Fold:
Amino acid sequence: MNSFTLTQATGVAEAVRDKASHESSAYLGGGTNLIDLMKENVSRPTHLTSLHKLPLGKIEQTPEGGLRLGALATNAETAWHPEVEARYPLLSQAILAGATPQLRNMATDGGNLLQRTRCYYFYDLATPCNKREPGTGCSAIGGYNRVCGILGTSESCIATHPSDMCVALAALEAVVRVAGPDGERTIQFEDFHRLPGDTPELDNNLKPGELITGIDLPAQGFAKNFTYLKLRDRASYAFALVSVAAALELDGNTIKEARLALGGVAHKPWRDKEAEAMLKGQPATADTFRKVAAKVVEEAKGYGSNTFKIELAKRAIVRALKQATEMDYSQNDNAFQNSNP
Ligand SMILES: Cc1cc2nc3c(=O)[nH]c(=O)nc-3n(C[C@H](O)[C@H](O)[C@H](O)COP(=O)(O)OP(=O)(O)OC[C@H]3O[C@@H](n4cnc5c(N)ncnc54)[C@H](O)[C@@H]3O)c2cc1C
Ligand code: SF4
Structure:
């Protein structure tokens, strides 16, 4: 690990100024990803702007009837917040399916959005990786790519975004609030992360120096019929091979509104709006779900050791939609069945 200087900023403007005044700098949230990357020499900032003292830890109502998650609220505080549990249980379930209680106590909501890929080669300095060192090549293509993507990949990179929380945020149509050297702005969640294209070193559409200040959830939380299904190698403490956030609004057995997003399959949380449109107005049956699942993976591409994900994703979508349909969580205390112990 290289040496670095550290500033404890106490306000948003001060944090933005401090980061900008150091050439090779990074914001420090909970540090659960950044410090690991620094220890591995994958990330080498010479200055950190710590966000710990920023007044961004609150979870509060928005004037529009939604909920604002402060960027410094921890993943644990968010998942167990009474408003999140009651109104956005899909989000609670997704967060609790990730990492471990200890990590969730440290990890912040802002940092969760910016965690970097778990592609093995990205961490291995002895191998070429376009994301770590642009222009060097991609070791995962033609290599061991079991954890890599099947949708929206490019010839430069087939990495996946590893977050569970972000898959639920994509399905819920969250909005990311940021502040930077040019002022404040909001970014729709679907526009926040990027596909790799020929610039896989860029994971998201933040401008240089921008700080995430919060995440807004709209009023509609799909609290009755939802599922976060995470398929992984171990029951806990493992990233998703494939995950599905499914949220439905039902009128009897007819689907009035649907949201569908996948994790573990693409460089960004993969929300499929065409699949959602296919679900709307249809009966909530296994037949409907199978057709939709087939559509989602229509253009999926396997790279060898990850080709199994195409069938896995298809089956996971059907199962998640079935679970979301059959279980009215408002009457069922089983919301956290997929959670880590
Ligand atoms: C062993 C292990 C297992 C894990 N398993 C899972 C899992 O199953 N599912 C899952 O989703 N996650 C998992 N994680 C990842 C974990 O959720 C993330 O590391 C965590 O959410 C990152 O948050 P942080 O606050 O610690 O970020 P940090 O490590 O502090 O920062 C991450 C990045 O975000 C930047 N940053 C932080 N806050 C802000 C901000 N407000 N504005 C702008 N930039 C910011 C930092 O500069 C850095 O680039 C795991 C992590 C570990 C170590
Ligand atoms: S998939 Fe992306 S992160 Fe992994 S080796 Fe290739 S370029 Fe690097």
Q: What stands out?
A: Residues 26-34, 36, 51, 71, 75, 98-99, 103, 106-108, 110-112, 114-115, 162-165, 211-212, 239 surround flavin-adenine dinucleotide (ligand 1) (CB under 6 Å). Residues 10 and 54 are 5 Å apart (CA to CA). The longest strand covers residues 242-251.
